[in-house]
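Need Lipoprotein's 3D structure for a figure. Predict it.
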Amino acid sequence: MSASLLRIALPALAAIGLAACSGMQAKSSYVPEPKPPSVMDEDEAYIAHVERIARQRGIEVRWVNLPRKSSAQVAREIEQR
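Structure prediction for Lipoprotein:
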C-alpha cells in the first residue's frame, strides 16, 4: 500500500514543483519601460566627475542638494533617442 502511494505521490509532487517554477519565469523577466529624461533627474556624470576628483585629493563630498540636469542636457538626451 505504501509503495503504491509513493508511486502516485512522488510524480504528483514533482509536477506541482515544476508547475510552480514555470510560473515564476514570466514575472522575473519583467523589465519596466525606461522613463523619459527629465530636468528632475540627477546629473550622474557631473556627480561622478566631482566625486572622482575629490577622492584623488582625499576629500569627502557630501551632497546637500544633488545637481540636476539642465534643460539643454535633457533636450540633447531626447534628441539622441
